[in-house]
Amino acid sequence: MKKKQHDLVFWLFLAPAVIAFLMVILIPFIMGIFYSMTDWTSRPQPEGLQFVGLLNFIDSFKDISFIYSFLLTIVYTFVNMIVINIVAFGLALLVTSKIKFDNIFRAGFFLPNLIGGLILGYIWQFIFNMVIPNLPVISAIFPAIAESGNLMLATRDSAVMAIVIAGSWQYAGYIMMIYVAAIISVPEELFEAAKIDGASSFKNLIHIIVPMTAQAFTITMFLTLVQSFKQFDVNVSLTGGGPSTQFAGSFIRGTELLALDIYNTAFTANSLAESQARSVIFFIVLVLISLLQVRRNKKKEVEL
Amino acid sequence: MKKVLLVLIMISAIMGNVFANGQQEAGSGVRPTLELLQNKPEIDPQLKAYAKAWGDANGVDVAIKTVGGSVDVTVGQMLTIGYAAGDLPDIFIFPGVDDYKQWAEVILDVSDQKWVDDTAVEFVYDGKVYGFPVAVEGWGMAYNAEILEAAGIDPAGLVNLEAYTAAFEKLDSMKAELGLDSVMSMAAAISMSWVTAHHNFNSLLSNGLAYGDLSVTNDLLAGKVDMDRLEQYASWVELLFTYADQSILVTGDYDAQVGSFAMGKSAFLHQGNWADGNIEASGASFERAFAPHGSMTEATDGIFVSAPSYYAINKDSKVVDYAKKFLNDLVYTDEGHNYMVNEAGMIPAFSPVTLSPSSPLSQSVQKWVADGKVYSWDQYYFSEDFRNNTLGPIYNQFAGKQINKAQFIDALNTAFESLK
Known about the structure:
Oligomer: heterodimer
Strand order of the largest sheet of chain B: 2-1-3-12-5-4
CATH topology of the largest domain in chain B: D-Maltodextrin-Binding Protein, domain 2
CATH superfamily of the largest domain in chain B: Periplasmic binding protein-like II
CATH architecture of chain A: Orthogonal Bundle
Structural class of chain B: alpha/beta
Number of strands of chain B: 13
Strand order of the largest sheet of chain A: 1-2
Distance between the termini of chain B: 71 Å
CATH superfamily of chain A: MetI-like
Number of domains of chain B: 2
Low-confidence stretches of chain B: 16-28
CATH class of the largest domain in chain B: Alpha Beta
Largest interface: A-B, 41 and 42 residues
C-alpha cells in the first residue's frame, strides 16, 4: 500500500487555520514591516508611496513620549507580573485547600476575565472616582481618601497602580486556573511522605508545591509578561493616558503605555507609518524579553 | 478526480459567499444602504429615529454610526480605518479646516445644492462649498440664574476678568447658604482635553476680536506670542481652575462635570448648549443662560458661536443622490425641521427653519446670535495632535497643581514657539 504523507483531505482540514493565520497574522505582519520603512498613510497620497528607510525608527526614538511610554511599560510589566502571579498563586492555593464552595470561588475569581477590558476599565474608573471617595464609614474615618489629590486616578503613580489593580483583577483568575491545574496534578504521595517527615504546610509549599508547579510558572510568567506588555484596553478606558506628567522637559501623558502610544501615534497624530515602526520595535523587544524569560524559567523546572 | 471536483465546488461555494456580500448593493431587489458617521452621542437616538422614518419613506436603509462623548474615538480615527478598509461612510461629519484638508480627496463639492443659499455658515474652501452645517452651537460660561440671583450677581456684568474674580469670590464665600459644592464646574482630565485645549483654548484665540479675525491665531501658528494676552488668559484659566470642584477638575468626565451643574452643586458650567439635553435629562428645571468668557481685562461681551461641524458627502459613495436628498430633506421638510429643532434640540443653521429650540441654553445662544455678539471658533486651525497631545497635558498639569501659573505660561509659550 502506498503511504501518502499529506493528502488533500489533510490540507483541506488544515486550510481554515492556515488561511486565517496567513490573512490576519503573517501577511499583515510582513506588510507592517514593509510599511514601517515607507511614508505610508491610509489617506490619499498623490505622490505615491515613498521609501524612507529607517527614518520612522529614528523619529520614534527621538520622540520623548515614546521613550517615556517604553520605560513606563517596562516598570508596569514588572509590577504587574509580580502582582498578578502572587494574587493568582494565592487564590489557587486557596481554592485547592479543600475549603467549602471551592468551585464557586473558582468560578467567581475567573469571572472578571470574561468581562471585556474596556468595560472593566470604565467600571474601575467609576469605583476609583465615585465609589471610594463616597464610602460611608471609611470616608468618615479617613476623610483624606475623598480629597481630590488623593484619588487613585489623580496622580501619575497611583494611576499606574490603578491600572495594575484593574489589570490584575481581570487576569489573576485566568492565571489562577493554570496554577490550580498544576497544583492538583502534584502526586499525593509526596505530601504523604512529607507528612511522615513532619513537614509544616509552609515547608510543603516551598519544597513540594513550588518546585512541582515550576512548569506552570513558566507559562504564567510568559502569559502575564505578554499580557502586561500589550496592555491596551484597560489603559484606554481607565486612564486614557492621563494624568499628565513632565518628562525630560516635555509635558506628556503620564500613564500612556506602549500600545496606547502606538495607537495615538497612528490615530491622533496621524503618523501611520511611524506608528507601524513603533509596533515593529514593540514586537522585537517583546520577543527578546519573552525568550529570555522562558529560557530562565525552563531551567527551574523539575522532572519527576 | 471526484475529490478534486468536490474541493473545487467547496471552494467556489465559499468564495461565492464572500463576493456576494460585496456586491449586494448593486443588486436590484435589496434596499441600498446609506451610512452616516457622526460624533454627537447626545442626539444619537433622535437621529436614528429620524433616519429610520426617512429611510422607510425613501426605500433606503440608513445606518447611523456614532462616536465621541465619553468614548475616546474620533471621527478622524473612524475615517482612517474606513479608508484603509475601502469602506468609508456615505455622509460623515468633519469639524473644520484641518480635517477638511486631510480628507479633501474624498469630499464632494456640493456648491450646486439648494441649501447653500439658505445658510450663512456652510463650509467653504477655495470658493467652493464642501460642508453642510449640522447646526449652530455656542459655548460660554453657562450659569444657573437662580443661584446668581440669590447671590445678588448680575450676569450682564460678567464680561471681564475683574468681574468674574469678584463674582467667584462672592459665590465662594456663600457656598454653604447656596448649597454649592463649588463655584465652577470644569473638567481638565486628559480625556477632557476637548474642554480645555479645544474650547477654553479658543478664548485665547478669538475672544474680543471681530468674527473671523485670525490675527492672533496666525501669529501663534507662526510662533509669535502676544505675552500680555497670554498672561491675561492664564489668569483666566487659573481663576476657573481655582474655583472648580477639584475632584471633577482632575478626574471627572463629561457626565460628572455636567452633573454637578445640573444638580445645582455649582453655579457655572464650562460647556456649550449641547449640555442642555443632559441637564434636562437629570430633571433640572432652573433658569440658565450663557455669559461671556472673561479671559481678558478689557470687556468681551459675546460668546463663541459657529457651526461646530459639517456633513460631507463621500465623493466615491454609491448612493450620492440619496445622500444629497437626505441633507436637503433636513432643510426643506417639516420632518427634518422637527428632528433638528424639537427632537435633537439643535439651533438650525438654515433660514427656512422657523422653529426655535425649547431648551434654555440653545435659546441663549440664539439670543447672542441675534444681538450679533459672537466670537469665532479658531481652535481648528491647530492640529488635533497639537491640541490633544501638546496642549492637553499642559492644562492637565496646571489643573493638578504640578505647575504654577508662571510655568503654565512658559509651557504654552514653548508649545507655540515649537509650531514655527
